[in-house]
Amino acid sequence: MRRFLLLALLLATPAVAQEEEPSVLPGGPGQEEVFYACTACHSTAIIRRSAFDRNRWDGLMDWMTEVHGMAPLEGEERRQIVDYLAQHFGPRGGAARGRNPFLP
Ligand code: HEC
């Protein structure tokens, strides 16, 4: 049974990766903005596995623009996107990351 579940997971993964929707990200203000601003170049997996504080996310926006050619994010849109990232993908796990079952 365990082996079957693993296989099912492996088979399902590519389909999920190709058909990402905003709902793969945690809900809340900024969810759609982040999804559409960021998935032009890569999937959300690269975001979901990250855990940065607000400063680092903010700096990453410039890096993405300068090095990878992302359209510059400014003003209210930038604030909302960086707030969202810091809230859900912050250094201590953020709201999006479940509890680590191996820690007390
Ligand atoms: C114009 C294309 C483009 C856009 C738009 C873009 N990125 Fe990226 N991003 C890249 C490239 C290219 C890399 C490097 C990929 C790699 O190393 O495999 C990257 C890497 C990253 C990384 C990994 C950085 C690290 O040091 O581990 C994160 C996190 C990230 N992007 C977040 C975002 C977020 C959040 C957004 C939306 C605000 C975004 N990206 C929009 C091109 C883009």
Explain what this protein looks like in three dimensions.
InterPro entries: Cyt_c-like_dom_sf. This is Aldehyde dehydrogenase. This protein has helices at 2-18, 31-38, 45-48, 54-68, 75-88. The protein is globular and about 50 Å long. 56% of the residues lie in helices and 0% in strands. It is built from 5 helices and no strands. The protein starts with a helix and ends in a 16-residue tail after the last helix. With 104 residues, it is an all-alpha fold. The longest helix is centred in the first third of the chain and has 17 residues, at 2-18. The chain has a domain at 29-96: Cytochrome c-like domain (Cytochrome Bc1 Complex, Chain D, domain 2, Orthogonal Bundle). Helix 4 crosses helix 5. The structure holds heme C. Heme C is lined by residues 37-38, 40-42, 46-47, 50, 60-61, 64, 68-70, 81, 85.
Low-confidence stretches: none
Radius of gyration equals: 16 Å
Q: At the third CATH level, what is the topology name of the domain at 29-96?
A: Cytochrome Bc1 Complex, Chain D, domain 2
Q: List the ligand species.
A: heme C
Helix content: 55-70%
CATH superfamily of the domain at 29-96: Cytochrome c-like domain
CATH class of the domain at 29-96: Mainly Alpha
Average pLDDT for all residues: 84
Largest sheet: none
Distance between the termini: 28 Å
